[in-house]
# Entry
Amino acid sequence: MNEFNSRLHKSKREFLIFLFIIFVIYVIIHNDLLCLAVIFLELAKNDKIELTIDALTSEGSGVGRYNGLAVFVRGTVPGDKIIAHIIKRSKHYAVGIIDKLLFPSSQRIESDCPYSQKCGGCSFRHMTYEEELRYKKSRVQDALSRIGHLDIKVEEIIGAQKLNHYRNKAQYPVEISGGTLSAGFYAYKSHRIIPCHNCQLQPAEFEKGLGAFSEWIKKENITSYDEQTGRGLLRHIYFRKGFATGEIMACAVINGDSVPNAQLLISLLRKNVDGLKSIALNLNKEKTNVILGKQTRIIWGEQHIQDRLLGKTFLISPNSFYQVNHDQCEKLYETAKAFAGLTGEETLLDLYCGVGTIGLTMADSAKQLVGIEIIPQAIENAKENAKINGIENAQFLCADAPKGAEILKQQGINPDVIILDPPRKGCDRALLDTITELSPDRIVYVSCDSATLARDLEILNSKGFTVNKVTAVDMFPRTPHVETVALLEKFSCAMQ
# Structure
């Protein structure tokens, strides 16, 4: 028995030696020293590895595989071959940064922003716009197939003509040290502020507004809010712009009820910012990371600024939800209207209506518009927006979407077409059940998250609604976000 065991162990050793010799020959032939490291060293923090990027995450980071392990590297493009410096290693993945770019992807370009690799604002300034659109369309397609289990082809994505300075809203976190203002964006996945001067996403007027705030801060010795202690006055600086009108609102989000020498701030802003129509203080004294508080006071100018979308005028207050890209918003709403297929005979229900923008741009083509929104101020804005546009066939209810839809059912109002534009989390199951009971002919679903959209489309599909069209709209160029519009039709209608 001892002799048998000895021979068995000898055979195992010989087999392992044989495998090692084969491996060494492979390494010599392919000159692949990194492959040798895989055998003897487990990947760890601070290792440097050769990596080929072959995909992107939903947040825009590149993904490569190293010995079967997913490695995420921000600032890379599919097709890049790099040396990655590992900065984090977990059981199932690793995170790296670019140590050296060995061979750039054919879709890589030079970033036009010195802050893009540090701040969390943009993810794709180093990538051609064609590749960005391809990725966004494929991301929507993947969600529909993988999450929604839907066999439908996404139509060609609607790209943007304007890639820079398109945002009509900016919320700058601030940090003040020695009287000097640092305002910009948080670093990726942190609350560390990266000061960004002349941001490529924002209009030039916002930078001039920051200059006015900076001068006021220095002269009045203003303090910035500290998240840890809950002390300090200035939390955020907030701007909104109506691109069609040129009107601008400036807002200081403060941890208090007033600011020192408000007249100086007003004077500096009026001097520096062309188109300024309103200056506000938003009071947020809660220990929270929510940006805006519930109370806003206008200290100079108008209560609202105005903008125009598809020929309609809209009032915008500091708390109003309003799409951040004016030109792409018009394309989004035009697509939604085309999907709705209105003839003038339909009752249109706009759920999550906000200040009424989607529904009111369609009201002229409907018999009746009903909007439902849970925020009272938004409902008041929606009613004002209907009035200033002379729209008399619209009514608005203040309720959450499931309750509002239930009220309509009790009142015997049967919508022919329902517009859904929910928050990122998508629709509650109870709302989808109520929509099914309302039995509209068509549902137009507008979504800012293709994953929750795909989930909800699968549910609606199981309840008798066929998904007939899906189009992606690039509302946020140079960022990983994408808007999507889907058309669903009741099965009996779709068959006609």
Observations:
- Residues 2-30 form the longest helix (29 residues).
